[in-house]
Design goal:
The complex is a heterodimer of chains A (328) and B (425). Chain A has 328 residues and is mainly alpha-helical. Helix content of chain A is 74%, strand content 3%. With 425 residues, chain B is mainly alpha-helical. In chain B, 68% of the residues lie in helices and 4% in strands. The chains are: A mainly alpha (328), B mainly alpha (425).
Chain lengths: 328, 425
Amino acid sequence: MKKFKFPMRYVPISATILVFFIVYLIGIISFDNFGSPKVFLDLFVDNAYLGIAVIGTALVILTGGIDLSVGSIIAFTSILIAKMIATGSNALVAIALALAIGIAFGMLQGWLIHCFSLPPFLVTLAGMFFIRGCGFIVSEESIGIKNDPVFNFIQNDLTIKLGKGMNLRFIVIVYIVVLLAAIFFSQRTRSGRSIYAIGDNELAATLMGIPVGRTKIMTYTIAGFCSALAGVVYAVYLKAGNPLNCVGLEMDAIAAVVIGGTLLTGGVGYVFGSLFGVLVLGLIQTLIVFDGRINSWWTRIIVGLLVLAFIFMQNLITKISKSKSKSQ
Amino acid sequence: MNKSSNKFRHLVWPLVSLALLLLFNAIFTDNFFKIEIKKQDSAQAVQAPSGTVESPQPGTSWITPENYESVNDSVEAAANAATEEAGAAAQTVQDSAGQQAAPGKKDGKGVSIFGYYLYGTPIDILNQGSKVMVLAIGMTLVIATGGIDISVGAVMAIAGAIAALLISMLDAGTCIGAGMGPSVYWIIPVLAALVLTTLAGFWNGMLVAGFGIQPMVATLVLMVAGRGVAQLITDGQIITFDNPGLVFLCNGHALFLPFSVWIVVAMYVIFGLLTRKTAFGLFIESVGNNERASRYAGIEARRIKWLTYVICGFCAGMAGLLAASNIKCADSNNAGLNLELDAILATVIGGTSMAGGRFFLSGSLVGAILIQTLTTTMYMKNVSPAIVAVPKAMVVIIVCLLQSPVFRAKVLSIFASKAAKGGVQ
């Protein structure tokens, strides 16, 4: 007797997508114009930077690690770019330098974590302090980016107009490209599959001959790059840099990863899910903005409860699949 | 190494670092170790509030301008950019507040013994570091079971929020117990905050021990939601208070030292005795080492873990009260922000293993003092508070590297290979 069985590993991500549609439906029912494509598009515009950062966090969490330096790197990159442009350098040079620093910093963190087997939590925590402090060394105050040709070009010429005042801004395109690349990387490349293997069982992966050290350092490097890119996108989005930006964003990123169906113990989950994790976070914020009566701190509480619900669901699934594998 | 030194081995590196820092200060900072004994009398208590940072009252014999400045420089609250206004106000009256509070307490408890107080940078480090020290005590126990509690910062905010809300209600007379008078009823918010945060710890423990969720994730929930709850309590406002009893917690003095130091000492003694003179500490270590094995050995592993989170919640509540008391207000957005990180760092610097199974309360306290000394040193060197994070992070990485067995082995092997090469040549 063959029965169609929904694979267990798709349950969390299906739940995420379901939550997304439920929240979206609630919005459409409660408010006029919530269903308009512009709102949906704005969801991407407003959360592109978060989405890009979450991709890096998701990959790191898949290896069983954690990256807390995300928000600080975003702040640092945005202020560095703003400062460099303000002092007269070319915006492209500034962006390239910022990305290079992000990559180097991620690599350094990965190296410390792997080579000295320091806890990822601690290293990236110190990294978070360090890089935010560096941001304040660059400038203690917010700096605007005004009349920069490159930024204007990104803003005006790279925006695809869809008509009716709807614009597909370049940062959204960047997000989607990075997301697709990360999905391909994690599902279809050898290094990407190694990430899953390491996250599932590092010792077993080592014994199988998977280059654990290289893969781990690479993952943190990618995370550093993603955070730096998120910082660039943030600078483009706000047209300003501020060392105080994105305090605590790493926790939003982790929450988005969890809501996106990735197990925080590593090895289980999809980068694709992080898209919906980010969208759910964005939707809740949009809902609260639409409502106008509820205070914004309800966002935190609702996000916390959602994280809790997903954790419970994941625990349940892990337990069920464990008991199944035992019975087999 | 002989056995007795082994017992204190974990303290070696933190103490060496601390000693180096203090040495640096002794050489490069004037008056760093200058501790003065001040006599408090009513005239000064009245006079002091009128003094400002820029122009300390002439004639107040107990403060030299440099000393006053250095004390104020290191007041963390004032340097906190977000609460700059509130902090500056608190800073101005910081020294006087305790003295103001003391007479108020006289009829309540009579704590103002002898009327002599110590002033100076080291004392100030202890006072400002008290929050992290209290947090680190609870965090140490949680980490010893192999867990982590990243919600303590948010729990601190909740504690401050509920205490400030209750005290403002009591001041307005809209809460039961208002009839007792301001010198007594401050105990109600304190107790309420501690009970609430203990419940928060209970909630964390329930998720971790009861439902078996990974600690980092389980406490993430409260970390994300906790600040929202705190803002819900205070309705998004920053509630200020000036109840002498509540202000006394972090600004008052007793027995020569700031009262907050005595709170730390009391908590250290209580939890030190609890863990080292009863089997509780052993149970914690065994659970941290191997939960399943200890369960088979008949230890209620779940209950032990649960209890450590409850204790951690209680400690976070106490730290939250100290933080609120220090700046005389409850700021749900900034109270305890990133302090969970400081607490974890203090614990790790103190030699407690992140993997669990081994813990040192004394080490954590030294770690907390180390962090605070570093911060204060930076402030005294005119480093902007925002940039202080950079050297802090570097110290943390260095201390972690020194404690990492892998790093030690690598360094040793470098020396060994050099020696071997030398031998061949």
